[in-house]
Write a structure and sequence with these properties.
With 788 residues, the chain is α+β, with helices and mostly antiparallel strands. The radius of gyration is 34 Å and the shape is elongated. Strands 1, 2, 3, 6, 7, 8, 9, 10, 11, 12 and 13 form an eleven-stranded mixed β-sheet that branches. The protein has a six-stranded mixed β-barrel with strand order 16-17-22-19-21-20. Helix 1 (2-15) packs across helix 12, helix 15 crosses helix 24 and helix 21 (657-691) runs parallel beside helix 24.
C-alpha cells in the first residue's frame, strides 16, 4: 500500500512539474533560512558552556550610584574575590583577571604586540576549563615571570607546541618570561579570549580600587540571588576606613554594591562598562528566532496555497476515486504522501542552499560557523523530524480539503470553488503579506536609525583622524608628535589614552567646593586634544603649555558642569582624591559612548602620565602619500617596531557592528520572505484565473479589454494586501518603537516608513498577480468556452 502511495504521488507530482518545482523551491528557501538561523541561535546560546563548571561560575560586578549618576561595571576591587571566599562558605574559589595592554614580545628581530593577553591568578585553571596539553596547571603560574600560552601562540613563536621551559622576551619592560604551560586554543564561544596568561601580582587587599574582572565558583546547589543579598553588609564593613566613610556616603543616597552574573549569561545579557570583550544581545536571538518561525510558516502557507491552486484540477480525480471505492482515509494518506515527498525534496535542497549561503551568512553575522561531522549528528535527526512535521502540518489542510469533495457534486460540476468564497485562502494571503510588510517596516526602521547614527553631530569630528595605537612603545613619543605635525596636510596631533571611540575609561568622583560631588570620567589629555578631535569650547579656554598653573587645570563637559552646578567661576576649587584642581573651560557635550546611552559627565585633565596613542588629524586628498610620510617618521624612531594604526571613523563603526549586521540580515531575510510570499500569491492568482476561465472567455466575447480583465482579477488580491497593511502597520510600529527605545538618541518612526512599506507591498503584489492576470486575459476565449 505504501509503495503504491509513493508511486502514485511521484506520478502526480511529475505530471505537474511547474507547481511541483515552485513548491519544492519555496519550501527549500524557507527551510534553508530556518536552518541558518537555528545554527546561529544555537551558537549564540552555547557561549561559555564548554566550561565543565559553567553552572557554578559567576562574575562579580560593581554597581555605583554617586551624585545622581548610576553606573554598572563588570569589574570589582582586588580584595573582593578573596573576601567572598573567606566570608561565605558557599563560595568555593575565586580568580582575578586583568586585561594586559602594551604587551610586546620579540620574535627574532621582530617585535609583536599581543592584544590577547591577560594577567590572572593560578586558580583560573581550576575554575575555567582550559585544557593544558603541556605543563602542570597546579604549578603553571606560581612564579612572577611564569607565562602560559595557547597552541596558536606556541606555533607562532616556536613553530611547535611542546615549548614548556622556553622563554619569551617582553620588550615592554625588558623582562624574560618562562613558559610553564601550553593550553588548547580557547573556543570561539567564549566571552573572552586569551593567548597569553601572565602571573598577576600579589593581592593588595584594596576594597575601593575597582580594576579586576573577578569570577567566583559557587558550591553546587547555592542560590546565587540569595547569596548576592548578603554582599551589601560585607561591603559596608570592609569599605569603612580612615579615608572613606561608607555610612556617610550612603546617607547621601549613594551606594556601591556587588552583583553576580552567571557565566553563561554574560555573552547575551551583559552590556556593562569594562567588559573583557564586546558582547552580543539576547534581543537579536529573539528577533532571529521569530524570523525563523515566520519564514518556516510562510513556506508552509505557500505549500498550502499551491496545493489549493491544484485542487480544482484534481477535484474530478477525487470524485472518480471515491466512485471506484477509495475511502477518505486512503485519499488523505495519498495526499500526505505527496506532501512528505515534496517536503523531503525541499529539505534536501535546503541543506544544499544553506551550505552554499553559509559563507555569506558568516560574513553578514560576524560568525565563523562551519559544517562538521558533529553538525550532521544532530542535524540529520532534526531535519527528518522537520520533514515529517512540516510535511504533515503543511499537507493536512489540502489533504482533508480535497478528500472531503462529494463525488456527485464534483462529477456534475457543482463544486463551489470561487475565489471570493475561500476564507481560508484569503486568510493565508493576509497572513503572508502581513509578515512581509512587518519585515519591510523593520528593515526600513533599522536602516533609518543606522543612517541617523552615521550622520548625527557627535560633538567631535571623527573624519580623517589617524590613531597610532602603540605610541607608548616609543621612548619619547612627544618628539614624534612634533615631527608629524610638520608634515603638510596634518592639521594637529595629540597624545592621549582616551578617545571618544574606544573603551579606555577612568571613572572616579570629583567634588566641587566642599560638598557637591558627582561620578565622572577623568581623561588625561594634552593641549592639542580639542583641536585634533574637533571638540568645541562652550566657554573659557583650552589648556596651554605656556601656563604653568595648567598642570592642575581641568575642563568639564556641559553635563558635568550642569550636575555640579558650575557656572564658570575660575576661583572655584575641585578635588579629586587629595589633589586640588581649578577649571579653565567648559566644552560642549560630545558622545563618547554608544548612542544607546546619554552623555555622562567627563572631566579633561592636563596630565601626561599615560599616553597610549598618537592621534593625527589630517586634511588631505592623497591619503596614501600622507600615510607613507607618517610611516617613514615612525620607522626613524622605531625601526624594529610595526606601526599599528586605525582610523577613528572605522572604530566608531565597530561600536554598531551588531546593528549593521542586523540590518544586512534583515534585508536578506525580508527579500527571501517576500519571494516566498510572492510564490504563494502567484499560485493563488493562477488558481483564481483557472476558476474563472469561462467568465473571462464570456467577458472577452462581450468586448471586455485586457486591462479591464486584469483589473478584475487583481482587485481582490490588492484588497487582501490592503488588509495586511492595516494589520501589520501598527504591529510593526509598536515592535520597532520598542527596539528604538534601546537608543538614547534615536530617529523616530516617520510616516513615510509605513507608507513606503505599504506601497512596496502593493507594487510587489500587483507585479506578481499581473503575470497570471494578463496571461488569462490574453487567452483565446474559444479554448475557454469549448465544451468539456
Amino acid at each position: 500500500m505504501i509503495r503504491n502511495y509513493i508511486k502514485t504521488a511521484l506520478r502526480s507530482l511529475l505530471k505537474n512539474k511547474g507547481f511541483t518545482a515552485i513548491n519544492i523551491f519555496g519550501l527549500a528557501l524557507g527551510l534553508s533560512i530556518c536552518l541558518l538561523i537555528v545554527y546561529y541561535v544555537a551558537d549564540e546560546l552555547s557561549y561559555d558552556r564548554f566550561n565543565s563548571k559553567s553552572e557554578g561560575i559567576f562574575r562579580v560586578n560593581t554597581e555605583f550610584k554617586f551624585g545622581g549618576t548610576v553606573s554598572s561595571f563588570a569589574i570589582s576591587a582586588p580584595a573582593v574575590g578573596e573576601g567572598l571566599v573567606n566570608s561565605f562558605p558557599q563560595v568555593e574559589n575565586s580568580v582575578r583577571i586583568n586585561q594586559a595592554i602594551n604587551i610586546r614580545f620579540k620574535k627574532g628581530s621582530e617585535v609583536i604586540e599581543e592584544k590577547k593577553t591577560v594577567y590572572c591568578e593560578p586558580s583560573i585553571f581550576s575554575i575555567f576549563t582550559l585544557p593544558m596539553i603541556y605543563g602542570d596547571p597546579k604549578t603553571a603560574l606560581q612564579a612572577p615571570a611564569d607565562i602560559v600560552i595557547s597552541e596558536s601562540a606556541a606555533k607562532k613563536y616556536f613553530d611547535k607546541t611542546d615549548v614548556v621551559g622556553q622563554t619569551l622576551f617582553m620588550t615592554t619592560d625588558s623582562s624574560v618570561h618562562k613558559i610553564t604551560g601550553v593550553i588548547r586554543d580557547m573556543p570561539a564561544q567564549s566571552h573572552f579570549h586569551a593567548d597569553f596568561f601572565m602571573t598577576m601580582g600579589p593581592n593588595d587587599h584594596h576594597w575601593l580600587n575597582f580594576i579586576n574582572n573577578t569570577y567566583i565558583l559557587l558550591r553546587p546547589g547555592v542560590n546565587y540571588k540569595g547569596l548576592e543579598e548578603k554582599f551589601t553588609a560585607l561591603m559596608q564593613k570592609r569599605m569603612n576606613s580612615s579615608t572613606f566613610n561608607y555610612d556617610r556616603f550612603a546617607k547621601k543616597g549613594s551606594y556601591i554594591k556587588l552583583s553576580l552574573t552567571p557565566l553563561t549569561d554574560i555573552h547575551l545579557h551583559s552590556n556593562r562598562q569594562r567588559e573583557l570583550e564586546p558582547n552580543s544581545d539576547i534581543r537579536y536571538v529573539y528577533i532571529f528566532s521569530i524570523v525563523a518561525v515566520f519564514v518556516l510558516i510562510l513556506a508552509c502557507v505557500n505549500f498550502i496555497n499551491l496545493s489549493i491552486a491544484r485542487s480544482a484540477s484534481r477535484a474530478r480525480e477525487v470524485g472518480i476515486r471515491k466512485v471506484l471505492g477509495s475511502l477518505r482515509r486512503h485519499l488523505i494518506a495519498q495526499f500526505l504522501s505527496e506532501s512528505i515527498i515534496v517536503t523531503l525534496a525541499g529539505a534536501l535542497l535546503a541543506v544544499l542552499f544553506a551550505w552554499i549561503m553559509l559563507p555569506l551568512f558568516n560574513q553578514m553575522s560576524g560568525k565563523s560557523l562551519t559544517v562538521t561531522s558533529h553538525t550532521f549528528i544532530y542535524l540529520l535527526p532534526a531535519l527528518l523530524a522537520v520533514v515529517l512535521i512540516v510535511g504533515v502540518v503543511a499537507g493536512s489542510y489540502p489533504a482533508f480539503f480535497l478528500s472531503a469533495f462529494q463525488p456527485v457534486n464534483v462529477l456534475k460540476g457543482k463544486l463551489s470553488v470561487g475565489f471570493k468564497g475561500g476564507f481560508m485562502r484569503n486568510t493565508l494571503v493576509v497572513f503572508q503579506f502581513s509578515i512581509s510588510i512587518f519585515l519591510i517596516v523593520g528593515t526600513l526602521v533599522i536602516y533609518n536609525q543606522l543612517n541617523y547614527i552615521q550622520n548625527k553631530d557627535l560633538g567631535f569630528n571623527r573624519n580623517q583622524v589617524l590613531i597610532i595605537k602603540n605610541a607608548h612603545a616609543l621612548k619619547n613619543p612627544k618628539i614624534l608628535q612634533q615631527e608629524i605635525k610638520q608634515i603638510s596636510g596634518v592639521v594637529d596631533a595629540s597624545l592621549t589614552s582616551y578617545l571618544p571611540t574606544t573603551s579606555s575609561r577612568w571613572p572616579n568622583n570629583i567634588t566641587m567646593g566642599t560638598n557637591k560631588s558627582v561620578q565622572t570620567e577623568f581623561w588625561q589629555v594634552d593641549e592639542d586634544y580639542l583641536a585634533t578631535m574637533g571638540i568645541k569650547l562652550k566657554e573659557g579656554r583650552n589648556f596651554s603649555s605656556e601656563m604653568r598653573t595648567d598642570s592642575t587645570a581641568i575642563i568639564l563637559n556641559e553635563t558635568a558642569a550642569k550636575m555640579l552646578g558650575y557656572n564658570g567661576d575660575p576661583t572655584v576649587k575641585f578635588y579629586f582624591g587629595n589633589k586640588e584642581y581649578h577649571a579653565v573651560g567648559i566644552v560642549k557635550d560630545f558622545n563618547f559612548s554608544s548612542l544607546r546611552d546619554n552623555v555622562t559627565p567627563v572631566v579633561l585633565v592636563n596630565e601626561s602620565d599615560w599616553m597610549s596613542s598618537l592621534d593625527v588629524k589630517m586634511n588631505t586628498a592623497n591619503l596614501n602619500s600622507m600615510m607613507a610620510q607618517i610611516e617613514n617618521k615612525w620607522r626613524a624612531f622605531a625601526p624594529d617596531q610595526h606601526m599599528e594604526y586605525s582610523f577613528m571613523d572605522d572604530e566608531f563603526n565597530t561600536m554598531y557592528n551588531a546593528e549593521r549586521r542586523m540590518g544586512q540580515l534583515s534585508i536578506t531575510f525580508t527579500t527571501l520572505a517576500i519571494i516566498i510570499a510572492c510564490l504563494g500569491l502567484f499560485s493563488l492568482a493562477a488558481y483564481a484565473a483557472e476558476q474563472r476561465t469561462k467568465e473571462i472567455g464570456i467577458r472577452k466575447v462581450l468586448g471586455a479589454s485586457v486591462r479591464a480583465i486584469t483589473a478584475m482579477l487583481s482587485k481582490d488580491f490588492i484588497k487582501l494586501v490592503a488588509i495586511s497593511i492595516i494589520i501589520a502597520g501598527p504591529l510593526a510600529w509598536f515592535a520597532m518603537n520598542k527596539w528604538l527605545q534601546g537608543f538614547a538618541y534615536r530617529q523616530y518612526i516617520r510616516w513615510w516608513v509605513l507608507a513606503s512599506a505599504a506601497v512596496a507591498a502593493i507594487v510587489i503584489a500587483f507585479i506578481t498577480i499581473s503575470f497570471q492576470s494578463i496571461r488569462a486575459a490574453l487567452a483565446n476565449p474559444v479554448d475557454s468556452l469549448r465544451s468539456e
